[in-house]
């Protein structure tokens, strides 16, 4: 529900723009330039208070006056706590009453803001962790710990730097918001249109061009937005009708768009917010995360491309009409203003090893300077455009800021109460009996939690609980954290709560549940890729070049063969037996090296099995091949 009054909407817009300005102010290092001595917690609390106020104003419910009062209380709380933070946090025992009152007010306001924005999922999880912390001494075994008094619990949640204003909220404000501003500025300067035209020019003349355009467009846009639902809403309005007109069913068109849009959260250079948190958790540079995610995300999108091509071959879907395809040279000539900030971002990250937020701010300045002269759609940006960009970025940041705030409280309390040790001990014991079982349990928990939480929330919680036991049992830290992130992302596609698929189904006019299961069928490699890089770090570009090349080649070949078996087309229609042979040979080719003894020979056997299938088909009489195409035999 949106703000019901013009005044509320205007105030919310003003606060959203101010949120973006606060993020720029802090991430640019401006306080140091002007000689202001600020603690990071003070800035984070101000940003959180603004986000809470926006949540109350834009979701007033049935009592707009109470919501307005809550918004005002949020701002007062943020201002008071920011001004008194050093005194209250460092000398809480000397100001117990004030600290407790401020903590209670902040806790209640934050819980209600989160409830209005995302529902009860995170709140229920926080409640369970709080109950454990209060009664930890009543448990037995590894879960037994020291109980925390209620007043100490509340002051810890709000005032401790390891809780509310911790690393998660810091990443959200200082890193994610600048990238959201860059994303919104790219959209305002014609970036979405440029990506759409570029996809048309590259794939429009190919078989099944409409599906391939959707995949490329979503990959391009996803590398900027990092949001599956926003990606579907932006590119799907163009690509879904195009796919339906080209010959794809409504269900398949929506599923292709949902699958392609979901992968944007792991598509460099601008990945989802969780990727920045991953880098912080591993104490690694963002460039390391980008490089590790590059091969899995490329393999994922290639698998979607393979599906679109084979499905088009099976259905006889032709290319897009020539009149709709722009000239590639013209797109590149007009699109340099869109490509330039990407170049600035990558140069800053890789050549000068800048922090992600600094590289993003430089990219924003480059794009802004160029857009004053020229944009892709021919318009020049104005001060009004800049204001709209800041407001849009601030509103987009509200949910992320609130998630990171409450997730920081959960993570901090898990560590403070000793729950991380107890659960970690249990998971390690489970993994000692079977690491594969622990991986499967982790994957299932990620998907189930993702049905009620955004990817950021799933990653933050599981990274503190599931990833450490995986690392202790021998997985590389990057592989363990990417495993959690991947399966947190897949909840967007997996029924019964497949948000991205349901949005795409609504746009396609198809059944939401049928579209969700079709998206699972199309994006099946995404459920396998995390297990592959957990078993073989070469898929994360870690290892000798020969191992990396061999791993990528076998993974791509295996994905191609299994997809051919699923679709039922490989140059021509496949019979039931041929589909089974193709899928089986693909699965054998996919077996990772170094995990199973003689995996290289099994890979070769899979390739040989497929070669025999191909030779058998070539030697079939034409009449029998026609019979196979009809699905007989």
UniProtKB/TrEMBL annotation:
Pfam families: DctM (PF06808)
Membrane topology of this protein: Multi-pass membrane protein
Domain TRAP C4-dicarboxylate transport system permease DctM subunit intervals: 107-541
Record's GO cellular component terms: plasma membrane
Keywords associated with the record: Cell inner membrane, Cell membrane, Membrane, Transmembrane, Transmembrane helix, Transport
Membrane-crossing residue ranges in chain numbering: 6-26, 38-57, 63-83, 92-111, 117-135, 156-179, 215-240, 289-310, 331-352, 358-376, 397-415, 435-462, 483-504, 524-541, 548-570, 590-616
GO molecular function, one term: transmembrane transporter activity
Subcellular location: Cell inner membrane
Family matches, as InterPro entries: DctM, TRAP_DctM-Dct_fused
Function: Part of the tripartite ATP-independent periplasmic (TRAP) transport system.
PANTHER family: BLL3936 PROTEIN
Protein name: TRAP transporter fused permease subunit
């Amino acid at each position: 529900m949106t703000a019901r009054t013009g005044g509320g909407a205007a105030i919310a817009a003003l606060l959203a723009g101010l949120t973006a300005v606060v993020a720029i102010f802090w991430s640019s290092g401006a306080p140091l330039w002007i000689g202001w001595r600020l603690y990071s917690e003070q800035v984070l609390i101000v940003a959180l208070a603004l986000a809470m106020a926006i949540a109350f104003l834009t979701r007033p419910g049935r009592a707009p006056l109470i919501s307005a009062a809550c918004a005002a209380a949020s701002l007062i709380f943020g201002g008071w706590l920011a001004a008194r933070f050093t005194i209250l946090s460092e000398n809480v025992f000397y100001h117990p009453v004030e600290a407790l009152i401020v903590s209670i007010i902040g806790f209640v306001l934050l819980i209600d803001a989160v409830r209005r924005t995302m529902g009860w999922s995170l709140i229920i999880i926080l409640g369970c962790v709080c109950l454990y912390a209060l009664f930890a001494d009543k448990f037995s075994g590894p879960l037994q710990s020291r109980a925390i008094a209620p007043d100490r619990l509340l002051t810890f949640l709000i005032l401790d730097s390891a809780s509310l204003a911790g690393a998660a909220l810091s990443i959200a404000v200082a890193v994610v918001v600048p990238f959201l501003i860059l994303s919104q500025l790219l959209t305002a300067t014609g970036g979405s249109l440029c990506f759409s035209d570029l996809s048309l020019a590259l794939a429009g003349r190919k078989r099944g061009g409409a599906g391939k355009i959707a995949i490329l467009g979503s990959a391009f846009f996803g590398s900027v937005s990092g949001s599956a639902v926003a990606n579907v809403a932006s590119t799907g309005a163009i690509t879904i009708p195009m796919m339906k007109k080209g010959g794809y069913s409504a269900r398949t068109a929506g599923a292709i768009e949902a699958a392609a849009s979901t992968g944007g959260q792991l598509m460099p250079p601008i990945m989802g917010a969780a990727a920045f948190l991953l880098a912080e958790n591993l104490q690694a540079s963002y460039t390391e995360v980008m490089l590790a995610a590059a091969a899995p995300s490329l393999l994922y999108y290639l698998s979607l491309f393979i599906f679109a091509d084979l499905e088009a071959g099976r259905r006889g879907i032709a290319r897009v009409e020539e009149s709709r395809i722009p000239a590639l040279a013209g797109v590149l000539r007009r699109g340099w203003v869109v490509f330039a900030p990407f170049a600035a971002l990558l140069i800053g990250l890789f050549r000068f090893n800048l922090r992600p937020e600094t590289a993003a701010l430089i990219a924003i300045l480059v794009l802004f300077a160029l857009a004053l002269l020229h944009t892709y759609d021919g318009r020049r940006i104005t001060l009004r455009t800049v204001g709209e960009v800041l407001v849009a970025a601030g509103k987009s940041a509200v949910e992320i800021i609130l998630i990171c705030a409450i997730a920081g409280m959960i993570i901090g309390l898990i560590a403070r109460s000793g729950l991380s040790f107890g659960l970690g001990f249990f998971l390690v014991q489970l993994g000692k009996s079977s690491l594969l079982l622990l991986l499967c349990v982790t994957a299932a928990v990620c998907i189930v939690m993702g049905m009620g939480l955004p990817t950021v929330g799933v990653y933050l919680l599981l990274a503190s609980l599931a990833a450490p036991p995986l690392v202790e049992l021998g997985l590389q830290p990057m592989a363990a954290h990417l495993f959690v992130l991947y399966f947190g992302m897949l909840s967007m596609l997996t029924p019964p709560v497949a948000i991205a698929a349901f949005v795409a189904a609504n746009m396609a006019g198809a059944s939401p549940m049928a579209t969700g299961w079709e998206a699972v069928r199309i994006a099946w490699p995404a459920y396998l890729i995390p297990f592959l890089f957990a078993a073989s770090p070469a898929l994360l570009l870690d290892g000798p070049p020969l191992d990396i090349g061999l791993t990528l080649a076998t993974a791509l070949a295996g994905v191609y063969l299994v997809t051919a078996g699923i679709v039922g087309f490989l140059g021509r229609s496949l019979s039931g037996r041929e589909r089974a042979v193709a899928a089986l040979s693909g699965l054998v080719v996919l077996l990772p090296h170094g995990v199973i003894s003689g995996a290289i020979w099994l890979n070769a056997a899979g390739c040989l099995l497929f070669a025999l299938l191909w030779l058998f088909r070539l030697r079939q009489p034409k009449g029998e091949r026609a019979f196979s195409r009809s699905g007989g035999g």
